[in-house]
Amino acid sequence: MLVDTLKKANIEAMKAKDSNARAVISVVLTRYQLKGVEMKSQGKEIGDSELLEIIQKVLKELGDEKEGYLKVNNLEKVDSITKQESVIKGYLPAQLSEQEIRDEISKLDDKSMPNIMKHFKTNFAGKVNMSLVSQIARNL
């Protein structure tokens, strides 16, 4: 499972004293554990698809944070966040391209926004940027 890979990577980052990798992997693992507790209380099991969603959310948050540091010209923080992004991106599967998203939408019988979003969330969790899917679907 992906979570086991992340746990090993966290230990390796700790041994290597890589604070950037350790910081971002720790955030992901903590959120994974919290999500697991939440899902267990609902009688559900947590898996890789939820972990991929967490990683994508963390990446988005890092991007937003980096933008803020760019605005105030704090290049040291920008560099640190860039390193964290590169570490965590390595755990995501290859993302669908815009053309692949368009092709998948064209195969659907019901091209309503809720149906498109549900289809991608169900079938391509972690393999697609949902905001890109939304943007493409709106422009069709």
Structure description:
By secondary structure, this protein is mainly alpha-helical. It folds into two domains: 88 residues, Uncharacterised protein YqeY/AIM41, N-terminal domain (Hypothetical Protein Yqey, Chain: A, domain1, Orthogonal Bundle); 41 residues. Helix 2 packs across helix 3, helix 3 runs antiparallel to helix 4 and helix 5 packs across helix 7. The longest helix is centred in the middle third of the chain and has 24 residues.
Quick tags:
Hypothetical Protein Yqey, Chain: A, domain1, 140 residues, 7 helices, mainly alpha
Characterize the quaternary organization of these chains. single chain
Calculate the mean pLDDT score and round it: 91
Provide the CATH topology of the largest domain.
Answer: Hypothetical Protein Yqey, Chain: A, domain1
Percent of residues in helices comes to: over 70%
User: Mind telling me which CATH architecture of the largest domain this is?
Assistant: Orthogonal Bundle
Give the helix/strand class. Answer: mainly alpha
Assigned CATH class of the largest domain = Mainly Alpha
The percent range for strand residues is under 5%
Which of globular, elongated, flat, extended, rod-shaped describes the shape?
globular
- Spatial separation of the terminal alpha carbons: 37 Å
Rg, please? 17 Å
CATH homologous superfamily title of the largest domain:
Uncharacterised protein YqeY/AIM41, N-terminal domain
Q: DSSP helix count?
A: 7
Total domain modules = 2
Reading the helices and strands in chain order gives: HHHHHHH
